[in-house]
From TrEMBL, chain A:
Descriptive protein name: Indolepyruvate ferredoxin oxidoreductase beta subunit
Domain Pyruvate/ketoisovalerate oxidoreductase catalytic: start-end pairs: 11-185
MF term (GO), any: oxidoreductase activity, acting on the aldehyde or oxo group of donors
Alphabetical list of PANTHER family matching this protein: INDOLEPYRUVATE OXIDOREDUCTASE SUBUNIT IORB (PTHR43854)
From TrEMBL, chain B:
Native source organism of the sequence: Salinimicrobium catena
Cofactors named for this entry: [4Fe-4S] cluster
One GO MF term: 4 iron, 4 sulfur cluster binding
Catalysed transformations (reactions): indole-3-pyruvate + 2 oxidized [2Fe-2S]-[ferredoxin] + CoA = (indol-3-yl)acetyl-CoA + 2 reduced [2Fe-2S]-[ferredoxin] + CO2 + H(+)
Pfam families linked: POR_N, TPP_enzyme_C
Leading EC class: oxidoreductase
The protein's name: Indolepyruvate oxidoreductase subunit IorA
Amino acid sequence: MKTNIILSGVGGQGILTIAAVLDTAALSEDLFIKQSEVHGMSQRGGAVQSHVRISDKEIFSDLIPEGQADLILSVEPMELLRYMPFLKKDGWLVTDSESFINTSNYPDKKELFNQIKKHPNHVIVDATEIAKKIGNSKAANMVLLGAASAIIPLSEDSLVKAIKELFQHKSERIIKLNLEAFAEGKKVAEGITDLAASK
Amino acid sequence: MKSLLLGNEALAQGSIDAGLSGVYAYPGTPSTEITEYIQKSKLAQELKIHTTWSVNEKTAMEAALGMSYVGKRSMVVMKHVGLNVASDVFMNMAVSGINGGLVVVVADDPSMHSSQNEQDSRFYGKFAMIPILEPSSQQEAYDVMSYAFDLSEDVKLPVLLRMVTRLSHSRAGIKVKQRRDQNEIDLPRDTSRFALLPSNARKQFDLLVSKKDTLVHCSETSNLNSLRLSENRNTGIIACGLAYNYLMENIGEDLSFYSILKISQYPLPKEKIQALYRHCDKIIVMEEGYPIVEELLHNYFDENDKIKGRLSGDLPRTGELNPNIVGRALGLFQNSTEPVPSVVTPRPPQLCDGCGHTDLFNTINEVIREIGDKNVFGDIGCYALGALPPMNTVNTLIDMGASITMAKGAADAGMDNAIAVIGDSTFTHSGMTGLLDAVYENSPITVIISDNSAVAMTGAQESTAVGRLHKICLGLGVHPDHLKTIVPLKKNHDENVEVLRNELKYKGVSVIISERPCVRLSRDQKEVIKAKIAALN
Ligand SMILES: Cc1ncc(C[n+]2csc(CCOP(=O)(O)OP(=O)(O)O)c2C)c(N)n1
Ligand code: SF4
């Protein structure tokens, strides 16, 4: 078993929290993990990505080779498309529908979503909207993680435990909110991503 | 359970467990997390390991040498260009040698993710004639530290440990070992080797040169350099540091096709290289950075066609390696991939909302209309983004501190209204000496110190400039009438433009300190800063 996941977004949007949940859950299942991240200049509102590799055997490269990502999980729709060369033929795209616009030449959104929909395995989630309804838009990343969870070869149990562990220093309310966000995301993608899980 | 650590953190934990007594460093991507990890480590606090940031890489390395002189194990950490700043002490402490183990950790940034160049620190190690270690994985970064300190003490030389961005900033599960105690104080018996007067220096330099054979022998027998010859004699691969991972990613279980020499310690193990060279029809050299090993091979064997790498064009001459580049060099099949759709536009980094640098640039841009757009010399930090749209304020960014001295040189050549923009941390790192040059000649320049009370670019570390800038400038001889303070806020725009206009009229050194804290400083950090300033007054 080897799973390659690219997380993408804009510096400051919190993709590393998703990475940390995946890392923690994978370690608790005694799996090998490598996870590269971007530090430095790009963290100031630039494009950032993290390569997460999970396997039951030793992993060598910290970077996922092009054409080998099973999943691109993005907290921003344009940033999803930036990493298309990494996607496997039958890989999955999961993204928040909410754009983060901090450039003057952000593309036409309709065209953006047309491009995403061209790909058969895509899930577009109103993650920020859902998170807002639950109580904090910042939990959008957990909504997305929930939505992608059927494609990720880690048990729900260990993902939930990892979320609890990561937020353990925060208030009871924040832990609950993030768990709820995860569960909501899972519900939204039910029926779509089950397809992948059943394979 | 294993701990999940960045390559940088694994290295840092490895140094604590190897009996470290002090880390000295100036922040710089991709090296910063090494020192930060030790600063945050409870164990390091209990062990009273020194961790405070230094003013720059040169002062850091000298302090590390001082700690080593006393017999303790010390480490100095920097990004690749930091070694340029510290190169004076670096070259000379190779000649004096060390006492307690001293490891120089330098993180290179091939592909320049956050840097001005992609210089390869292995050249410096070779130049100084000291051992170089180059881990290929996070676990190796942890494990190598105890070996690095032992080796340093055995051969009485500093050891250069080279990291690269992708290893520094990637996590993996790490197994840790038992911790070794710190060294006791043990002063050098004979101090003359540390007094590099020509008569001593000549002796020491001969001694350094004579260590070559020992160092090659260490490399030859080191576990870090492993040679595996395959029955198939077609292709031999020399994989240095991180390149070994990309190689293994590609060949996976197909080990029988290739003979492989993994290199993580230099000087190169010449016998192992010769064995590989004799065994194979073709040699591919895979190295992150400059083609330094490839060039050496050409020198050894004087036969060009057999050696492939970055010079031959089988791998790109510049930029970092990745699994695809390495796979292509091996001639392995790769699936076609989807392109990036053309709707995707670039998203470069930018100044945060509420950043004081932005308001400062707006002020400067106002006078640029009057004085011309080529007069602003810049420096390194978040405010370097002022060289890009939408600001387009700053024209230059070369090395830390160059804004002041370049403005001075331009003024010497006759430029009117030369302006230097420099951050508070860059100013204390390398701006103060240049300002003294300008004061000494009363050069007609206007220096603007954009003081955000932080080393923001690298993650808002504490700045040694906090609370000291006025006194430093006055102490260097800036005239009190031409030392001004502004607060870069929209509401002060007109007033600030006037201050700048007036100082430009003065044909001597003016310094304007533009004070507004970085928005990334946490509440706790702001409290600490306040307390520090109060204590100073
Ligand atoms: C010799 C050298 N050391 C370190 C760095 C990394 N570096 C670049 S900018 C910077 C900090 C600048 O801080 P400051 O001048 O206060 O500006 P700010 O980022 O806070 O705006 C550092 C540490 C470098 N580029 N060169
Ligand atoms: S981190 Fe601080 S100095 Fe850098 S852009 Fe943001 S506010 Fe400005």
